[in-house]
Amino acid sequence: MNRIAVIDYGMGNLHSMAKALEKVAPRSRVVVTADADELARADRIVFPGVGAMAACMSELQRLDLVETVRRLSRERPFLGVCLGMQALFGHSEESGGQAGLGILPGRVRGFSPELAETHGLKIPHMGWNRARARQDHPLWSGLDAPWFYFVHSFYCQPDRDEDVLAECDYGQAFCCAVAHENVVAVQFHPEKSQAAGLRLLSNFVEWRPETGARGGSRVA
Amino acid sequence: MTQSDGLARRIIPCLDVDRGRVVKGVRFENIRDAGDPVEIARRYDSEGADEITFLDISASHEGRDTMVDVVEQVAGQVFMPLTVGGGIREADDVRRMLRAGADKVAINTAAVHRPELVAEAAERFGSQCIVVAVDAKQVSQAEEPLRWEIFTHGGRRPTGLDAVEWAQRMAELGAGELLLTSMDRDGTRSGFDLALTRAVSDAVTIPVIASGGVGSLDHLVDGFIHGGADAVLAASIFHFGEYRIGEAREALVRAGIPSREVEAA
Asked: What sequence ranges are listed for the domain Glutamine amidotransferase (chain A) (predicted)?
């Protein structure tokens, strides 16, 4: 049986993510776990998270998961969500500067207060916004200018333009989805984005990256 | 409100839950039973509501425990943002609701008694999931400049706190959003207190949800255009089948308010 593991490192609500995955992948086994062996047995990895980057990194360290997450991100179809997207980058501006996992080159920046001031924008960026795909990718299959639910004050700025999968506008265009080899990550919450979100999760579950990463062929 | 961003304004149906059943009090009295929370949440989901808010009005511990089950059931079936409020006293209550599947937790009276709770919760769980419920009532007399105060206990107990200053303080402490309810208007169906909504919305840089008094679709539109709200919350106009979420959305579109396009379910 295909196994999907949701990494449980104490950062936020994993119940909804697990339920949404169960809904789109009824024949898969969805496990929510912080156990490195259990993660290693999974065919696909979902790395969610809400909250602060510093807390995220210190929890990953406390649970001794930093290397595990780095390794899995090279080996399996891997989906980062929200803080789980931000943590993939090398550096975040949050709380005066935080190191991330450095899996993707780039940095995490805050929406500037000036931008908020001049455009009258509220921070966090909270609510439904539209994402524009910048490239064809299986993750986006069947999604035409979808609306997704966002809640965040920081956004990712990849160094490599080719990693940008989709953008969104909030006073400025910002990257709201990335794709690089077997890693995809989204700033919005697919598990909270009704039909469009479930479609994206279903696309992830079906996705067979072309790189050496395993995807779904494993027999449990 | 601004047109320079792509963000849609939100329509949020609110469900008051007492011991596991959805009810809606008019001025917090004369409660009518409106049904099963899971069933109602599913209906709003299929109609394309932007979020759902549950306010637990149970007085007892048993009622609160029931609420955790309700949240868990809803979050397992409805894949949209879910806010839960009512009876949140400490950071552990926030954690319990988040673990059950809530995305945001609204803190009300406890923030008045112990404002540091907002800072603690924001620090521990992130501002994005901390909503502070601001229940305000006009205290200025006719001829005087408008002034509102924070009230607790369903609008019965004054606190002496100025509502606009309080809203700013909550934002500074780390609230990610404010749920602003006019206790004068709640249950009256006579429209939002737009002056209050505008005063608070202009005073903070976090999103403000207008609440209290919605009786028609025009009231929702007014909340955005005149109140400057980022989201509008309503209960009775949706519960009893008077209006569907889609009709509310059409009203927003007609008024030129950015709204999410939802495929008919």
From this structure: 6-205
pLDDT category, B251, cuts 50, 70, 90? very high
pTM, two decimal places: 0.91
Task: Identify the DSSP state of A140.
Answer: G
Which CATH entry fits the domain spanning A3-206: 3.40.50.2300, 3.40.50.880, 3.40.50.200, 3.30.1330.10? Answer: 3.40.50.880
Domain ranges of chain A: 3-206
Where does B86-174 show beta strands of DSSP type E?
Answer: 104-107, 130-138, 148-152, 157-162
For residue B78, how many C-alpha atoms fall within 13 Å in the half-sphere facing its CB?
A: 30
A189 HSE (CA, 13 A, CB side): 29
| Residue A132 near chain B (CB below 8 Å) | no
ipTM (interface pTM)? 0.88
Burial of A7 (0-12, 13-18, 19+ CB in 10 A): buried
Using the Cβ of A32 and the Cβ atoms of chain B, whether some distance falls under 8 Å is answered with no
In contact, A213 and A176? CB cutoff 8 Å: no
